[in-house]
Design a protein that fits this description.
mainly alpha
């Protein structure tokens, strides 16, 4: 894995913010928007670094199966968020094997179902 510079991270952050200026999420308050953008940034960083490489493969698969790039990043972000929450709750490091398995199991249908389930709450 190569070392990223501050400029690289800043570029990713700027691109995420620019994308959301075009396609805002009006239902998110300030704190939820910050968390949302952070998850986007994490996915974009993984894609830029190709680490893990499965993130890029999953992105391409989701795109080929009908999601927009933004939706595909959201879908991958659900896996990122789930693993991050598990790490916090269990006080552990990233379990890359579990993370990669959950990425590989992610489908357009499972993502859309999770969105529908969350909207029903």
């Amino acid at each position: 894995m190569r070392t990223r510079t501050t400029t690289d991270v800043t570029s990713i952050r700027d691109a995420v913010v620019k994308e959301h200026a075009k396609n805002p999420h009006p239902g998110l308050d300030r704190e939820h928007l910050r968390a949302h953008l952070l998850i986007h940034e994490m996915v974009e960083k993984q894609l830029a670094e190709n680490d893990p490489p499965e993130v890029g493969r999953v992105l391409h698969r989701l795109l080929a199966n009908g999601l927009s790039r933004h939706e595909a990043v959201h879908a991958i972000g659900t896996v990122v968020a789930r693993e991050a929450l598990a790490m916090l709750r269990q006080g552990r490091e990233l379990d890359k094997e579990v993370y990669v398995r959950e990425l590989q199991e992610l489908t357009v249908e499972s993502y859309r179902q999770s969105v529908a389930d969350n909207e029903a709450l």
